């Protein structure tokens, strides 16, 4: 029985080493007040930044709160203790700033020439049709 537990531990350690070499892990993170971005340096030497206000739970945080960013143990995520917010490094690196619902809200806030033109055209037709009174 002890041999099985040792084998499982060895397998878990080997998997952890493999993931450390293939998945993005944070070495450090900081909030840059001038740009309003969270800047992340990865263990690979690469770096990326994202607008802090895109992160779920960071939308209305103060600059002082944003500056309190910590790298989670193992470099898997970023943590803001006072805000009780955690964001994953693999998710952030892929452009995912929160849950599906949060991402849908962000997408709905996007502005583009096409979206503006469609809204104007819809308005010229009298706007959104009223819901029928079916009960």
From TrEMBL:
Name this protein carries in UniProt: DUF2442 domain-containing protein
Source species, domain of life: Bacteria
Organism the protein comes from: Caulobacter radicis
Pfam families the UniProt entry points to: DUF2442
